[in-house]
Amino acid sequence: MSAQLKVSDRYDAIVVGSGMAGSLMAAKLSAEGLRVLIVEAGPERTLKELYSSQIWARKLKWRGTPVEESGDHRIEHVFNAGYGTGGSAIHHYGVWLRLHENDFNVASEHGMGLDWPINYGDLRPYYDEIQHEIGISGDAKAEKWRPAGDPYPLPPLPLFPQGQTLKKAFTAAGRHTAPLPVAINTRPRNGRAACSYDGWCDAGCPTGALANPLATYLPVALANGAQLIHDAEVIRVLRDASNAAKVTGVEYIYAGERRRAMASKVVLCAFPVQNARILHNSADDRLVAPGNEHDQLGRYLMTHPAGTVFGLFEDDTAPHQGVSAGALLCHDHYADKQAIKGAFGSYQWLIAQAAKPNDLLGYGTSRPDIYGAALEPFLTKAASHLANMTMVGEDIPQAKNRIVLSDNKDPNGVPVAHASHDTSAQTVALWDHAMAEGRQIMSQGGAIETWQGPRVAMHILGGTVMGKDPQRSVTDEYGRVHSMENLYVAGSGLFPSGGAVNPTFTLSALALRTARHIVSAAAG
């Protein structure tokens, strides 16, 4: 899978990162005959090397150059990012949701953050196309909140006992649920197996049932002739000496040496913090960093504030069955972002995640107040009677939340990234309200005991936001850096606002849109 490069190698396009955005971008560009190089900072991984183990799952998280963090709600880069072939999408849970129409204009409609330079209608055809290629399982009609779009190509996930218990709880509380739409096969499709529902998504999916890049776009890109090099950390883009508005390639570290690869176009598809770091490190004594002419690079860093609510029930819930994402969805309070006094934003419930006793979503570590002789009876009860669900909330884009360069440097002498993120009082109020609601729903559904986990950061967004105004954004609506002719950015770093849905579907639709634009511009 890896390629050894020579300094003289030249490509039509260099794609930085092999995650979902990078693999999709490489597949689409190479399909049009472009000579593509994918540069991946982490090690090579294959499907057969993914194991159902929490120890293994931790190996898939970020292990590259450390990211410094500060603020009262840190973005938890190590957990959210990935490292190696497939990037963070190799351990994502496959929750593929569309942004709602009201997510695109939070500034003009509510005076909060930034507006997108596009609307839902601009993105809908790309959502529909990606959905058909990937194969999403769900029930579009049951999602009464979902914006317009094609029905899902696969039937929804089965409802195991935990999901049945929580569905009754939501009904008792007057709430509506629908099957959770996931990029996980509920039946074999396009050479990929159906899910076995053993709840090990966080450790990767060796069967290909989960739509990670190793099972979807990366094989297509490689079959089209794209090259992929691993363990090669891009540290900056290279500028044309005679035209500061053009890049000529990238500089990267490979086996401790600085090397260069040259290309007509460069597309940064790494994780949001790394994209911003690469751009920041591309400044020199002569030129500011690309996209930072108006001091916007790294700004509007966001995450999704999230938290899990747990309950114990008399019924047998078999919480180990299913998928890590959950089985059901509730968006009943998504539409009105100002419905809660003192709060702002939408939120969703991802319901009935497959749970194990330890590590991620582990109920054994969720109750630090239970220890000693009381721990074994609790674990025995929870193993058969626990239910859980996760709230995902909206973060308000704030210019002060930013990715910058630290004074500290990595072993290669390159400044590391520092990510600073504080949450707003309105966001805290939203989270507090939702978590109280979750416990109430559990109780109304018959839970004999409820508790909740802490507020955590789920997903990383922003830092290289798109927009119409170069003085308030880094890229245009296609991800092209405003000040540059041939430098693009892809991924969730483009999001001017984050809504309250998981970002992989949207960043994939954006990447497809950008790829089509690049091909069209090249043809023109």
Low-confidence stretches: none
Strand content: 15-25%
CATH superfamily: FAD/NAD(P)-binding domain
Which structural class fits the helix and strand makeup?
Answer: alpha/beta
Helix content: 10-25%
Calculate the mean pLDDT score and round it.
95
Cα separation of the termini:
33 Å
Largest sheet: 7 strands, mixed
Structure description:
With 524 residues, the protein is an alpha/beta fold. The chain has one domain: FAD/NAD(P)-binding domain. Helices cover 23% and strands 20% of the residues. The strands form three sheets. Strands 1, 2, 5, 6, 7, 8 and 17 form a seven-stranded mixed β-sheet that branches. Strands 4, 9, 10, 11, 12, 15 and 16 form a seven-stranded antiparallel β-sheet that branches. The chain has a three-stranded mixed β-sheet with strand order 3-14-13, with helices on one face. Helix 1 packs parallel to helix 7. The two termini are 33 Å apart. The relative contact order is 0.20.
Give the key terms:
FAD/NAD(P)-binding domain; 7-stranded mixed β-sheet; 524 residues; 11 helices; 23% helix; 17 strands; alpha/beta; 7-stranded antiparallel β-sheet
Q: What order do the helices and strands come in, and which of them pair?
A:
Blueprint: E1 10-16, H1 20-31, E2 36-39, H2 54-59, E3 68-70, H3 77-80, H4 106-110, H5 120-134, H6 161-172, E4 178-179, H7 217-223, E5 227-229, E6 232-240, E7 243-254, E8 257-268, H8 272-280, E9 302-312, E10 328-330, E11 347-351, H9 375-385, E12 386-393, E13 402-409, E14 415-420, H10 425-444, E15 449-452, E16 456-461, E17 487-489, H11 504-523
